[in-house]
Amino acid sequence: MSKLRVVTAVILFSLMGVAAAADEALEGALEAVNANAIRAHMAFLADDLLEGREAGTRGYQLATRYVASQFELLGLKPAGDQDSWYQALDLRRSVQVEAGCSFSLSGDAGSRDLEYGVDYFMTGDANFTSTEVEAPVVFVGYGVTAPDMDYDDFAGIDVKGKIIITLRGAPPTFPHNQRAYYSREKMNIAEKNGVVGVLSILNPEEAAKRAWDRRLQNSKIARMRLLDREGKPLEAHPGLQAAAALSQSGMEALFAGAPQSLEQVFEMAKSGKPNSFDMPWRATMKRQSEHRNVRSENVVAMLEGSDPQLSKEYVIYSGHLDHLGIGEATDGDRIYNGAFDNASGISVMIEVARAFRSLPTAPKRSIIFLAVTAEEKGLLGSKYFAEFPTVPLKNIIANINLDMFLMLHPLKDIVAFGAEHSSLHANVEASANKLGVEMTLDPMPEEVIFVRSDQYSFVRKGVPAVFLTAGFKGAVDGGPNGPAWIRDRYHSQSDDMNQPMELQSGVDFARMNILIGYDVANDSARPRWNEGDFFGNLFGKKRK
Predict the structure, then answer these.
(1) What class is the 95-289 domain?
(2) C-alpha span between 493 and 327 (Å, rounded)
(3) Are 390 and 80 a contacting pair, CB within 8 Å?
(4) What is the pLDDT of residues 271-282, one digit of tens each?
(5) Which of 161, 344, 368, 535 could tie 316 with a disulfide, CB 3.0–4.6 Å?
(6) Where are the domains of the chain?
(7) At 470, is the secondary structure helix, strand, or coil?
(8) Cα(213)–Cα(346) distance, rounded to whole angstroms?
(9) Which fold has domain 28-93+292-543?
């Protein structure tokens, strides 16, 4: 054998040995994920003593101290403000005063006062403590203007200075990406059109999944908005001075004598082409709110990468630490413990961090573990971090979000929201194959989940992101599944540690997310948006 061949063989065997050692170390990190640790973290974070972890409360602050102490125990590096564990942000907390709210109709057919809690409800307004609006009412379908889809609910109808009625969501005929995006943009669209008030209605299928009593109860929970440095609320739509959600009786009152009946409106909405038309009513709406400014914090920790150059780039694991706090009692229970939503995601994040920390050599890129506040109030903590990151935004290459993993049954399949938009799909697919988990399509596209959790704050800054949830293939006949949990426990006091839990699925979920982040952190190339992708075209240019 020539000398060159000998040297080449030695190098190859050496590289094989290094690769084998790395694989063995990764396997050890995966095996180290502990079901009891996940449950223990959840038990503390979802305990009644933390009073539901509402952003800006003492209970939430206790949760931040617990998470920071776990990160410090693991030997991670503080990555918040001024080398601390925390990133502070200011919020406006608003709650509606029901006694100061009213809603009445007048028209050729007479007048009618609607009853709060029976026909409608309102939520707190971050801009004003008191507003009163009197204006004509107009039905505008989904309230969407989408030039790229050649669709405009506002075409040919005057809505300036008027109150509009809109169906929840966006046209079902839209591709799911556009459906998700425009569902979240509706208030912006309404304000740009000069609308002064918005009334929201649900079609029968949506109403069946969202019981009025539950919606009414959740409406009493405080709303929040980020404050700028002058103390003014951001993205709070000051032009929209009236807003309400309508019950079945409220919808029937509004559509009495309308050019189309409710049934006709719902039937046309299924086709994605509801008509817009003037309603036979003027509405007078009064809303009163109480304000209180609060400060809350994100928790930020870092595992520094091992490569001298790539360590200046960052993969972010995010998850929201807050929940809904304390509300009206249901069966004597006032505390929204948020065990699955989202003590589960934060607990998994801590175990993911522990697994990475156990590796003999850290991944090439640095990894940030970000527990955010006020997700339940509109993704506010992640929005603030994405706007004011504690590391250069241009060097944040990917986001892996951990939110409300439902440990209801063995993990047989996953839904990877966002994976189809970027090269992250390959990382998710490889990780799923390694663990013997199937990838399935979104079973509930009408819920537009991709824009409803913290990954969307990073997507809006052009960062490719992914968010995993469990599919339903592991559910046994008659056993719990996602839709039933959403209907019966989501945002209710029964999301606590007394519900059934399949902890091994939490372990498998943690391992899946570890593998994804490990691959991304060690890849020589950054994740990239797919060519022609809707979100890539919309937001990816911000990365260039």
Answers:
(1) alpha beta
(2) 9
(3) yes
(4) 888 999 999 999
(5) 368
(6) 28-93+292-543, 95-289
(7) strand
(8) 29
(9) Aminopeptidase (3.40.630)
